[in-house]
Design goal:
By secondary structure, this protein is an alpha/beta fold. The chain has a single domain, classed as Ribonuclease Z/Hydroxyacylglutathione hydrolase-like (Metallo-beta-lactamase, Chain A), CATH 3.60.15.10. It is 23% helix and 25% strand. The chain contains eight helices and 13 strands. The chain has a six-stranded mixed sheet with strand order 1-2-3-4-5-6. A five-stranded mixed sheet has the order 7-8-9-10-13, with helices on one face. It has a two-stranded antiparallel sheet with strand order 11-12. The longest helix has 12 residues. The two termini are 26 Å apart.
Length: 250
């Protein structure tokens, strides 16, 4: 699904274009190749590859896979994508060891299955991480420059990726925040308001045009408005509207 001249949606459980446990998977076209943002849950990888080909792209041109965090619906497809394309995988240094060699239990899959979030047959899939990402890193790939912004809150390893393409400042924010200023606080280990209070302000004044979260609506313009709404909410005295609630702030 083409979003802009350079950004495509090639995976999404909510839009029904790929597997049942896939986050949004974005493809970014650069001057020297392709970059994927997140990998989906790894249950129906061929659907993502079919979507890439249907948009006229060759999966062999994928140079990098930038993972926003290690949660299963974003990272478990990484191993297949890396194996099939030879691309480099980027992930927060906080969760590199977990993705590379952690067990399903260490990743918390057993608890997620108990809660009914994933089926019993779902697998946590280890994957080599070619580069561990730290807050403030600059990633040069496919002729593009991505700035890594670490924002604790949804998870301790969440990384937002900022890239400027044809004058548009686009932020791929994973599950840190969503359309309407909704934040990604969830009932899971490592998801904390403390993290949001500490880090979300890093995104203030970023002049974001396109805002591309890991689920739900995205916007190609006015993205900073949604970020500012989230920052305003976390500075109030009550718990902000979170991803598990219905509706949005505006």
């Amino acid at each position: 699904m083409r979003i802009t001249e350079n950004i495509y949606l090639v995976g999404s459980l909510q839009l029904g274009i790929s597997g049942r446990w896939d986050s949004h998977v974005y493809l970014v076209k650069g001057p020297d190749g392709l970059v994927l943002i997140d990998a989906g849950g790894g249950t129906d990888g061929e659907m993502i590859f079919e979507n890439i080909r249907s948009e006229g792209f060759d999966p062999d041109d994928i140079k990098a896979l930038l993972l926003t965090h290690v949660h299963f619906d974003h990272s478990c497809g990484a191993a297949e994508i890396r194996e099939r394309t030879g691309c480099r995988v980027y992930l927060s240094a906080n969760s590199r060891d977990l993705l590379e060699q952690g067990t399903a239990e260490e990743a918390g899959l057993d608890k997620a299955i108990e809660k009914g979030i994933y089926p019993e047959w779902f697998q946590f899939k280890n994957c080599v991480v070619d580069q561990a990402v730290e807050d403030g890193d600059q990633i040069s790939v496919a002729g593009l420059e991505f700035s890594a912004i670490g924002v604790d809150g949804h998870s301790p390893d969440s990384i937002c990726y900022l890239v400027e393409i044809n004058g548009s400042r686009d932020l791929f924010c994973g599950d840190v925040l969503f359309y309407g200023g909704v934040i990604g606080l969830i009932n899971a280990p490592g998801s904390t308001m403390e993290g949001y209070r500490k880090d979300l302000g890093k995104l203030a004044g970023s002049k974001i045009d396109g805002l591309y979260p890991g689920h739900f609506l995205f916007t190609v313009s006015g993205g900073q408005r949604h970020i500012d709404a989230a920052i305003e909410q976390i500075n109030k005295g009550s718990i902000p509207q979170t991803v598990g609630q219905i509706g949005s702030i505006f």
